[in-house]
Design a protein that fits this description.
The structure holds 2 protein chains of 2 kinds. By secondary structure, chain A is mainly alpha-helical. Chain A has helices spanning 2-31, 34-51, 60-81, 104-112, 115-122, 126-137, 142-149, 153-178. Chain B is 50% helix and 25% strand. The chains are: A mainly alpha, B alpha+beta.
């Protein structure tokens, strides 16, 4: 029994080491602060380590990202942003972008990630950004994103569509220059 | 045009039937097909530029935390699993120690114990007759000690046996021409601590209890305390005479 538990913990470390960059990257993209991302990632890993016996064995990466996201939503977002509410119908809600360049942590953040994409992601409100990050960067399914963010799958679909539209708008200059997006593709702003 | 379905198709999140239906619609709607391609392009762009972020130092810190957690859990587990055994062991030591203390009266008696024993007026258990051996000795001692310090015969008024704090005690109430005396016999007591010695008589110790003097000595594997309202020297002479009768 003792060896069984030790093996389980070893298995956890082996799997966790592989997906840790995704965990930290997601934490970084959610908090947009290197210091807070490290704290969030560490907390998530410790919680996962403690709860590994309850892991159902399906998708380890999705399970870890679910813990990170839940932790962020419950602990960081409520504390940092207060009772701010976002509405799926309100396209005008954007996080402040003007002052972020002045935040010291932001410089570290830009050094760690691709500046253009991350800047564009930063302009996407957090609910939509979480969906885009988990889907397009981490490759989670809608069901897994729904579980991670504790919303219905229909909401995940909606947030992804809207989040991508916002991201496309924020990226259009750079993406067009790089040839990823055609100029005519940017006309769907009503998304 | 249902854009959410296009996104779901791009993400392979539609069932086969719905996916076929959306693809058929796209074939008939160039704008829809263009939008679908734009979604695929954006996904590719994000996947290419937003890569996982390594942080080796943080991972090493996490591993350190894992080990701390594992160590703390092992300790908790051990304590949780064996707490009953540890508690039982400690309790066992206490009980055994108490029983040994209770059943094995100490060979020494402190001066404060003498006072407490002597002051115990009520037996803690039902009084019994003294043990035959000591009774015979006391009777013999009194019979032979025809002359007390007051030149009168020493008379045993009555005797009783009982225990005080687990210690067996025999008590004899005596009287001679000078007044009443009490002789307490403590079986198993080999010495008395904290008492003064009587000048010129190293085998007898002395002390005072209230207004009365007492002398104490050891013989026959027991301790003897003789208390009376008279001088220490007289008590010592009487004690020596009682002791010499053996």
């Amino acid at each position: 029994m003792l060896f069984g538990k030790r093996n389980a913990k070893d298995a956890f470390e082996r799997q966790a080491e592989k997906v840790f960059p995704s965990v930290f990257g997601t934490a970084l993209r959610l908090t947009r602060s290197k210091e807070e991302a490290e704290d969030l990632a560490m907390e998530a890993m410790v919680r996962a380590y403690e709860a590994y016996e309850r892991f159902d064995g399906s998708n380890f990466k999705a399970w870890l990202l679910r813990i990170v996201t839940n932790l962020y939503i419950n602990r960081y977002r409520q504390r940092q942003r207060g009772p701010q509410l976002t509405s799926l119908e309100d396209d005008a809600i954007y996080e402040p972008v003007g002052s972020e360049a002045e935040i010291p942590d932001r410089m570290l953040f830009d050094e760690a990630l691709g500046a253009e994409v991350e800047e564009a992601l930063a302009r996407v409100p957090v609910d939509f950004r979480v969906a885009v990050v988990l889907s397009d960067i981490e490759g989670l399914s809608y069901q897994e994103i729904a579980e991670a963010t504790d919303v219905p799958i229909g909401t995940v679909r909606s947030r992804l569509a809207r989040g991508r539209a916002m991201l496309r708008k924020a990226l259009q200059g750079f993406a067009i220059h790089q040839g990823y997006i055609k100029e005519t593709d940017t006309t769907n702003d009503e998304l | 045009m249902n854009y959410e379905l296009l996104h779901a198709l791009a993400d392979n999140q539609l069932d086969a039937e719905t996916a076929d239906r959306v693809r058929n619609e796209m074939q008939q709607d160039p704008e829809m097909a263009s939008e679908f391609q734009a979604i695929l392009d954006l996904k590719k762009f994000v996947q290419t530029h937003a890569v996982p972020v390594a942080n080796d130092a943080l991972w090493v810190s996490c591993q350190g935390r894992f080990r701390e957690q594992a160590r703390a859990k092992r300790v908790d587990s051990f304590v949780g699993r064996y707490a009953w055994a540890m508690s039982a062991t400690v309790l066992g030591f206490i009980v055994v120690g108490g029983l040994m203390q209770r059943n094995s009266p100490a060979g020494n008696v402190e001066s404060a114990d003498i006072a407490r024993i002597m002051m115990t007026m009520e037996p803690s258990v039902k009084a019994e007759a003294p043990s035959p051996v000591l009774k015979r000795w006391v009777q013999g001692a009194f019979a032979l000690a025809q002359e007390s310090a007051a030149s009168n015969k020493l008379v045993v008024r009555y005797a009783e046996a009982f225990t005080v704090e687990g210690r067996p005690i025999e008590r004899y109430f005596l009287r001679d021409g000078a007044g009443k005396l009490v002789l307490v016999v403590l079986p198993g007591v080999k010495s008395f601590n904290g008492l003064e010695t009587v000048p010129g008589n190293s085998s007898v110790a002395t002390g005072q209890m209230g207004k009365s003097n007492f002398v104490a000595w050891n013989n026959h594997g027991a301790g003897f305390v003789l208390i009376g309202d008279r001088k220490t020297a007289d008590l010592a002479v009487l004690a020596e005479r009682l002791d010499s009768t053996n």
